[in-house]
Prior knowledge:
single chain, 275 residues, Rossmann fold
Amino acid sequence: MKCGSLPALSTIFRMRIIHRRRAFIWRNDLYDGVPFTLIRASSYRTNYEMARMWNMLQFAVRAWKGEWAKGLNAPNLILGSSPDPFVALAAERLASRYRVPFVLEIRDLWPYSIIEVTGRSKFHPFIQAVDWTQRYLYAKAERILVLSKNSTELMEKSGADPDKIVWIPHGVDLSMNPEPRLMPDDGLFTVTYLGAHNEWNSLDSILDAAKLLQESGSINILFRFVGAGESKPALKERARAENIRNVRFEDPIPKKLVSVIQQRECPFFGHDGQP
């Protein structure tokens, strides 16, 4: 975004992979005319491990220190998103430093998300720290943007003012979705999962279904796993160990091809325990 000919806002993007060819703490780049600041943070393999916690805190501290902002125009507003609450906390602290409004965007409902996925107690020290941080952010934000309309009830229980909350759902590029058409009658019924392979998308239930159908003698049904994620190696190993032959694992595809697959095959959506 620009104000006249000078950039008014620098967007922070988290770097999760350490570039060995050239170490840096931060650097400025331009993508399609929009200025980005890339901030280096340590890598991790799964979402709920100590390395992930360290990644959160490391990025937040480096963003909050603000060395990357030297030479940039002062912002008119700072929006802090919450893939984790600590990066949003860094944004709030920067807004306070610049004395500009702070807008909070809620992507995950902390700490509820981590409690539901990991089963950790709400009295765990890390959960308590996350809960305090989220309540603090609700109190400090001028506006709170939510992507899911049904998130507001839990947010209000954590102290969010309902008058601050604004629902802005994800946008859809309709040009990427051609007109619907009937699935081809080629004798094979294909069920496809497209997305992240992780523990809360109920992907083991697909293997359960595939195994049951294989054992019942159904030979014209194929299950495709398209994407990547921390659970993919275990899913592939289970399919191999249990000799589940009516499944296929494939690499991620460009988003522009998703609608093509969805028109030809049956998509699968699931949540842990609720396929």
